Amino acid sequence: MRTDLNIQYNHLERGILNFYRDPKEFEGSQKAADVMRDFGVDRRVVSADEVVQIEPALAPHRNSIVGGDFTADDESGDAYLFTSSLAKLAEEKGVEFRFSTRITRIISEHGHASSVEVINADGSYDSIKGDAFVVALGSFTPQLMRPLGVPCLIYPTKGYSATFQIKNKDLAPTVSLTDSSHKVVFSRLGDTLRMAGTAELSGYSRTLNPVRCRAMSDLAQDLFPEALDFNDVKYWSGLRPSTPSNVPLIGPTRLPNLYLNTGHGTLGWTMGPGSGRALADIISGKKPEPTFPFIGI
Ligand SMILES: Cc1cc2nc3c(=O)[nH]c(=O)nc-3n(C[C@H](O)[C@H](O)[C@H](O)COP(=O)(O)OP(=O)(O)OC[C@H]3O[C@@H](n4cnc5c(N)ncnc54)[C@H](O)[C@@H]3O)c2cc1C
Questions:
Q1: What is the Å distance from ligand 1's center to 228 Cα?
Q2: What's the CATH number where 256 sits?
Q3: For residue 211, is it within any domain?
């Protein structure tokens, strides 16, 4: 897609480095790396010295790090820039996007989905007909599927991000990092460093809890005290559409022209292109490439 579309989204191919401070956790990383290698992902376990060689911004913390694992061909980028640029290109190719439009109901007739009822941005009602429908409503999928007798076990897991302006770029990381003890990740996005993490189960609210925001900022300050401007932080929260198994729901439902592409939890951007391609194949009557339990609920 990158080659074909030339989308600019602060993309970096510098790999992802998990670092560990707890020897037990580090021991466990070997097993996980073996599983990843079995699936063709080149993740290798590295010593603490190698960790700081791979990412020199961690050098001041060498003594608290016990080791790491590194996946050199992993990548990072700005998901918002990527998706909004992709939407623009799709629009140029004839896709019609209807933003600020709320779907209130999926209508079924004779065992088939026939239309969706929506409220437009100006408050007016509309009904949109279609030959086939893909439900990709993330955490909000169950509410619209329940009346159709299609149960979807998806619950919102709220995650936070904090984006810091970089004031000293030589001291800020360029490799994507996971601090395994704190379950947070750091990605360099141009002149900023984005930190993401936490899993809060608090319904559908996206309210930012100031205690969690402060904890993220404190951790970033502990790791990269001179690199970032702590007076210029943008906090954000989002709902990860989580399934009990962490496996997404992709495929047909019991209504033959109604499909699901949802429940991608922590990895929706990573899995989005593959899920989309597989579902397009299913809708076109082709066999999707990956071996996966494409659901039929
Ligand atoms: C802090 C954080 C960090 C993350 N980091 C990563 C990462 O590094 N890599 C990665 O791959 N993934 C990451 N994720 C996960 C990723 O964001 C999600 O998996 C992804 O957004 C799911 O995409 P989706 O389109 O299925 O659902 P969503 O992004 O939730 O989109 C669903 C859309 O449906 C709309 N909608 C819902 N109900 C209605 C309705 N009735 N009418 C109209 N529209 C409706 C919503 O407004 C929303 O726009 C992260 C998530 C968070 C919160």
A1: 27
A2: 3.50.50.60
A3: yes
User: Which pTM value belongs to this model?
Assistant: 0.94
Based on the fold, state whether residues 183 and 209 are members of the same structural domain: yes
Strands 112-119 and 102-109: antiparallel
Tell me the pLDDT tens digit for each residue of 221-268.
Answer: 999 999 999 999 999 999 999 999 999 999 999 999 999 999 999 999
* Residues 290, 1: Cα–Cα separation, whole Å: 18
- Structural domain including 106 reads 98-154+245-282
Phi, psi of 84 (to 5 degrees): -70, -35
Atom 4 (ligand 1) nearest CA: 266
DSSP 8-state secondary structure symbol assigned to residue 261: E
Residues 83-96 have pLDDT tens digits of 999 999 999 999 99
Structure tokens at 135: 């439900």
Tokens, residue 137: 């409503």
85 is a domain residue: no
Helices 268-283 and 79-92, packing angle to 10 deg = 30
Contact residues for 94 (Cβ-Cβ < 8 A; gap 6+): none
Whether 16 and 72 share a structural domain: yes
How far apart CA 199 and CA 283 sit, in angstroms, is 34
Cα separation, 271 vs 264, whole angstroms: 7
Pocket of ligand 1 (CB under 6 A): 102-103, 136-140, 159-161, 196, 238-241, 262, 264-270
Q: Phi first, then psi: what are they for 265, rounded to 5°?
A: 50, -125
Q: Are 76 and 187 in contact (CB under 8 A)?
A: yes
* Residue 34 one-letter amino acid: D
Q: What's the total number of domains in the chain?
A: 2
